Amino acid sequence: KLIKDLSRKQTSLLVQLRTGHIPLHDYLHRFQKVDLPTCPCCNMANETVFHFLFQCTAHRRARDRLRSQVGRRNMATKYLFTSRSLLNPLFEFINASRRLHHIFGTIPPVPRNDDDDDE
Prior knowledge:
The chain is mostly helical. It has one domain (8-104). The protein has helices at 8-19, 25-30, 49-55, 60-70, 77-80, 87-97, 101-104. Helix 4 (60-70) runs antiparallel to helix 6 (87-97). It is globular and about 45 Å long. The termini are close together.
């Protein structure tokens, strides 16, 4: 039910985030697509999904907005990746970071349904 009515782009992004098979440097480095696994935005750590979402200083402002929208308690992948009501704030963060824009473009908002309680 989480991916019901999501576009192909939204579904692809969500699956890639959940599996870690996403074009961030840590993953790309495994296949020699980039020289280093280090985050190109902050150069402080390997650019994993966790780093991108929760640690990268370059995305602090967007992350602060995400946290204010979803609440501190929901700032974990187990909630962000599994609750339909948190997808729009997550996609807004990704859009604001512009880190994946060259791959996904602008991620559109998820249409709200009457039954969009946390699934």
